[in-house]
Amino acid sequence: MSFFKNSRRRKYSRYRRRTVSRPKRKKILYFFLSILFIFIIIPSGILIGAYIYFSHDLPHLSSLKDYHPKLVTKIYSSSGDLIGEFFTERRYITPLEEIPKKLQAAFISAEDDQFFTHEGVDLLSIIRAAYKDLEAMEIKQGGSTITQQVVKSFFLTPEKSLTRKIKEILLASRIEKYLTKEDILFLYLNQIYLGHGAYGVAAAVKTYFNKSMDELNMAEMTLVAGLAPAPNAFSPINHFDRAKKRQKYVLKRMQEIGIITEEEMAEAIKTPLVINPAERGKTKLAPYFIEHIRRYLEKKYGEKVLYTGGLKVFTTLDINMQKAANSAVEKGLESYETRHSEDYAKDISITEEPPKAERLKIQGALVCIDPYNGHIKALVGGRSFSESKFNRAINANRQPGSAFKPIIYSAAMDRKYTPSTIIIDSPIIFENSEDRVLWEPLNYDRTFLGPTGIRCALSKSRNVVTVKILQDIGIDYVINYAHRMGINSTLNPDLSLALGSSGVSLLELTSAYGIFPAKGNKATPMFITKIFDCNGNVLEENHPKIDEIISPQTAYIITSLLESVIKEGTGRKMQALKRPCAGKTGTSNEYRDAWFIGFTPKLLAGVWVGFDDNSPLGEKETGAAAAAPIWLSFMQEALKGRKIFPFKVSDGIVFVKIDPKTGTLPTSESKDKIFECYREGTEPISFEPEKEGKPIIEEEIFSKPIE
């Protein structure tokens, strides 16, 4: 019985223990499940949900491997020097291996010293950066890793929000798996903005030091690296003291990490920093030339390609000649103002208005061309590009005056005229058949020479003789002839054409003159030789376009006649060049335009001087006085040290001794005897003028009606 009781007690005890332990076990299980749910499952779900929410619209990373940033279009001279740039972001893509190791280390030390060990995000760096910033009460160290900065630069907006920060962290982690550390560093150093329009380290180095990266010293490297967190605040141009302080911080970080020694740090701190020592001289050298290139590129390739496509454009410009052109034009215009300083003083004493020198500056233009290939070697389109971007060498149509005459004389040579043909320089009046208006062309000096040979007529720039020649050979013939020579401007179909009454551009008239030294061949003006895209593919390649316009014999004869302009005519001052040269002055009505276009056997240049509002230049401001000195100054510098060449005589040219007064073979009574050049078969063979054909003589006061 007792056993039974005991047995029942034991059973009851076991039952009681079971009934008590089950609820406890359930409670324990519930407790642990709750802990798991609250601290693991829910957070995990939240994290997964957040990840899905924030990552569903994250950008693809493929653009990082196919990196096509906005690049600078570069313009180069004929010798390969950089002379111009077009960009929205000034950036020069540089392979990582071409960026100095110390420069890379400077950025890493200052911005992300754990770059090669973390996986995109460095929490310790963020905490350390926050502490440093609070301690210094200023921005001293960025909290983002280099990878995060790449993310911000490529994919995210600059807004400060929790959402953007989460996306930044997610993308940084992805990038670390997608790219190598070297790839990330390459993107960072080429993409980062470093102030004053400079994107990437190569652009920053050029902006602040006007150097290439391999020329940098440690002081310069660390100053550039210090710009990263706040390029405007640390700008060495605007805030040098701040930049210097930041540079010291970068050097200290490099020393702490062990990249440089204390001695190297001290030496770098003491090294003088010369910030932006000069303007980018070569890129300011030829603004009118560069602007012409810009317009061409924009029209042909579009604005986007021009400003972001990274084109490389090689031009025909010669840097030394451009410098000579700039100097010559500036000195020539200053000389003009000096000559007229008293006139301006009189103006201001009479009226309260400022003198013309202040109201409107005198302007000038110059273009230099290689006559054999058309290469534009130098171009000045005005006095100051910053004040006026209007290109007076290309876009201004001004009256050339007598500078147009060589085209008429060339046309005459192809109509059986010769250098010894005699024309009577005498008064002549034309009557318009419609309204009976009279026109009497006059010579500059208001005198008449009587019987005058072609050579003398051109060298002395006799207006009346030229009008008579034009009347004889025909206006339409001369206009067509001029168009063949490259004069594209509209020409007035009347006899005033002989006096250069039709506006032309300096470039087209100068280019037309190039036919004479080039033995009758015209080379189309050329500004660009080659264009490459950012990958080095050739987009455009230009070769000289040469057309035979006139015969070599006519070209040589006109060259010879224009040599006489220099030797004994209106261009005598050009003899100071002390080498063979030929050219022609030009002055429009009331001295509104002054021209000189001339050439040596190897080089051609034209000069124009005038006011934009077409005001008169002043008494006696002819082409010889206002324009020719600029041409001479330019040529003296452009040809300095170059070999002297003579003008070569074309085949088919013969020289005969003549009497210049009669245009025939000399007799014993001839006072003057000269050698004259002729196209073979047109030379004089008689001593008597009547046997050579009658000279063109106007006996009547009134001639035919104006054509």
| Net shape | elongated
Q: What fraction of the residues are assigned to beta strands by DSSP?
A: 5-15%
Secondary structure category: alpha+beta
Number of helices: 23
The main β sheet shows up as: 5 strands, mixed
Please provide the count of β strands: 20
Which spans of ≥5 residues are poorly predicted at pLDDT below 50? Answer: 1-5, 690-707
Helix content: 40-55%
- Rounded to an integer in angstroms, the radius of gyration calculated over CA atoms is 41 Å
Q: What is the strand arrangement across the widest sheet?
A: 2-1-5-13-14
Overview of this structure, please?
- With 707 residues, the chain is α+β, with helices and mostly antiparallel strands.
- The strands form seven sheets. It has a five-stranded mixed beta sheet. A five-stranded antiparallel beta sheet has the order 7-6-18-17-16, sandwiched between helices.
- β17 and β18 form a beta hairpin.
- α3 (101-111) packs parallel to α9 (218-225), α9 packs across α10 and α14 packs antiparallel against α23.
- It is elongated.
Describe this structure in a few short sentences.
This protein is α+β, with helices and mostly antiparallel strands and 707 residues long. A 5-stranded mixed β-sheet has the order 2-1-5-13-14. It has a 5-stranded antiparallel β-sheet with strand order 7-6-18-17-16, sandwiched between helices. The protein has a two-stranded parallel ribbon with strand order 3-4.
State the main characteristics.
707 residues; alpha+beta; five-stranded mixed sheet; elongated; disordered N terminus; disordered C terminus
